[in-house]
Design goal:
The structure holds two protein chains of two kinds. Chain A is mostly helical. Helix content of chain A is about 65%, strand content about 0%. Chain A is built from nine helices and no strands. The radius of gyration of chain A is 19 Å and the shape is globular. Chain B is of the alpha+beta class. Chain B has helices spanning about 5-50, 65-75, 100-105, 170-175, 215-240; strands at about 75-80, 85-90, 110-115, 125-130, 135-145, 150-160, 195, 205-210. The chains are: A mainly alpha, B alpha+beta. The interface between A and B is medium-sized, with 27 and 26 residues.
């Protein structure tokens, strides 16, 4: 069940085949939902639920899906899952759903989902597909959380809404929050820095010229 | 690759769509009561917030029950008025959707008013607000002292404003500024409350500081205040006398 091959499915997306920093998928939502840590965590969990379940569903149907309409089938499965997550959030986590409103719907367009369904779930059994889904969503989530940590800290001076800088008395020394960190372009720069750090540590990731 | 006949593809698609549609309908139907309850509680909480009674809601074990009890205990009256300030009998104020009312001609609008009675017996008038920000709707509630001009409290919410910029209108530091501002000047002329850049708002009884970096949202908020409060102008004047 947790053979080394299966564990690799979980571990790889966290590092050397990270969907955001290495495959550069799902960048769009990494820019949008990383202003606050809380939103990023909920987004990561939502993507994990949607991706893991969609992967399993597609994997179960893989021998019955006609190749000519497979993209549509994948989209229908993803959209269904996303609507379910949205409905459930609205019923049981209303405050969170208000904050994430549009972004939950945008999970449908997250390239990681289509990418994993196409590349993995269509050709593998349900259990590996499930692990692949969890792994990739975790890889996506961890980058989201790192980016959100820095953006929230430097942009608003808080972590999970807790005013860290205010408690440290930093504002009395004349420090000001960097409003630019709140804007989407700085998310891109932050992701860029993470990619740089990762590639300087693992030279294999650098494309040969 | 296995090839499939057109017939198979049609049947496959039809079956898939039927299954998905049934599933979604079922989930949507069964969760609807919870979702509607959430919206209702949110509205009640907003009304309570505008008179500073929302404290402790984050710590409450059962948020819905907490809000319902507070609402029932403090919001003593609600009524519906028209643009001329006349009370419309037999109408429920709570279910009125202000957004739809604002689309109607001014004379046809049904305008809700909520009354909060303080422990000292003062009647605080609460009116709803509805407007447009930069990316989507903004809304809120504002409450007035018995002189019908001095702001008792205000609360604003948004759906899609930029976090950290326009969305700051939902923060306490912004809403606190409204307390004590007046919407009628010394000669009893309706002035609404302006949202001004820089420190222009300081010392001005009819203005507050805008959000830096949130100019369009701030302007939208200003328009929302003057449009919505404008509807109540006559009612306020009648009630004052």
């Amino acid at each position: 069940m947790f053979s080394s091959k299966n564990l690799k499915l979980l571990r790889d997306p966290l590092g050397d085949s990270n969907p955001i920093t290495v495959q550069v998928l799902g960048i769009c939502s990494a820019l949008a939902v990383t202003v606050k840590l809380e939103n990023s965590v909920v987004m990561a969990i939502s993507v994990m639920a949607v991706l893991a379940v969609s992967n399993v569903v597609i994997s179960l149907m893989r021998n019955y899906i006609p190749p000519r309409i497979r993209i549509i089938v994948e989209l229908v499965v993803i959209s269904t899952m996303v609507i379910l997550v949205d409905e459930i959030l609205q019923a049981y986590a209303y405050d969170v759903s208000k904050q994430l409103s549009v972004f939950v719907g945008l999970i449908i367009t997250n390239c990681i989902l289509m990418g994993r369904l196409e590349a993995f779930a269509l050709g593998n059994k349900p259990w590996p597909a499930f692990l692949d889904g969890i792994g990739n969503a975790a890889g996506y989530g961890i980058i989201l959380i790192i980016v959100a940590f820095f953006r929230e800290l430097l942009g608003s001076g808080t972590i999970w809404g807790y005013p860290v800088f205010e408690k440290l008395g930093l504002y009395k020394t004349g420090y000001l929050n960097n409003g630019m960190m709140i804007l989407p372009p700085m998310a891109l720069v932050t992701v860029g820095i993470i990619i740089w750090v990762q590639r300087s540590r693992n030279k294999n990731l650098i494309e040969s010229k | 690759m296995k090839s499939y006949s057109n017939k198979y593809i049609f049947i496959f698609s039809t079956v898939m769509v039927i299954i998905v549609a049934t599933l979604l309908t079922f989930v949507s139907e069964s969760l609807q009561p919870y979702q509607e309850k959430n919206v209702e509680v949110e509205k009640k909480l907003d009304i309570l917030r505008s008179v500073g009674l929302s404290g402790g809601v984050d710590k409450a074990k059962n948020k819905n029950q907490f809000v319902e009890e507070k609402y029932a205990g403090n919001i003593t009256k609600s009524l519906v008025i028209n643009i001329n300030g006349e009370v419309q009998k037999g109408l429920e104020a709570f279910p009125i959707n202000l957004k739809e009312e604002l689309r109607k001609a001014p004379e046809e609008r049904k305008l809700p008013v909520f009354i909060y009675t303080t422990p000292e017996g003062k009647e605080i008038t609460i009116v709803p607000l509805q407007g447009k920000g930069l990316w989507g709707p903004i809304w809120g509630y504002i409450s007035f002292q018995p002189d019908m001009s001095t702001v008792y409290g205000a609360t604003f919410s948004d759906a899609k404003e930029t976090p950290g910029l326009g969305a700051e209108i939902a923060q306490d530091f912004f809403q606190e500024q409204f307390k004590g501002k007046t919407i009628f000047d010394a000669s009893d002329k309706f002035t609404s409350i302006q949202v001004l850049k820089g420190s222009a708002g300081k010392g001005n009884p009819h203005a507050v500081d805008a959000i830096s970096g949130g100019t369009i949202t701030s302007k939208g908020l200003e328009a929302m205040l003057s449009d919505c409060l404008g509807n109540y102008e006559k009612y306020f004047k009648l009630k004052k006398e």
